[in-house]
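User: I'm new to structure prediction. If I give you an amino acid sequence, what do you actually give back? Let's try with this one:
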Amino acid sequence: MLSVDGKPQIQALNRSQPVLPIVPGISERCTHDYIRYGPIVLFAAFDIATGEVITAPHGRHRAVESEKFLIRIGKTVPAHLQV
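Assistant: Good question. You get back a string of structure tokens that encode the predicted 3D arrangement of the chain. For your 83 residues, that looks like this:
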């Protein structure tokens, strides 16, 4: 069984500087500011039996992108299972 959903308007962010790794006695350190890359739409399908997640980020949320994601699910699921 697959659970499929789409989450629109996720802000694509990244730190302006690399995150500094954890060293003995000091926790991970990072800057407070971000670089914004604009909104994205994240399509995801969760296979309840195996815990596998199939994802596809897209720049727009239209029927075309939804159809592409459904085709990707069809290619990912083993042939002997009916989707």
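You can read the tokens as a compact description of the fold. Here is one thing that stands out. The longest helix spans residues 63-76.
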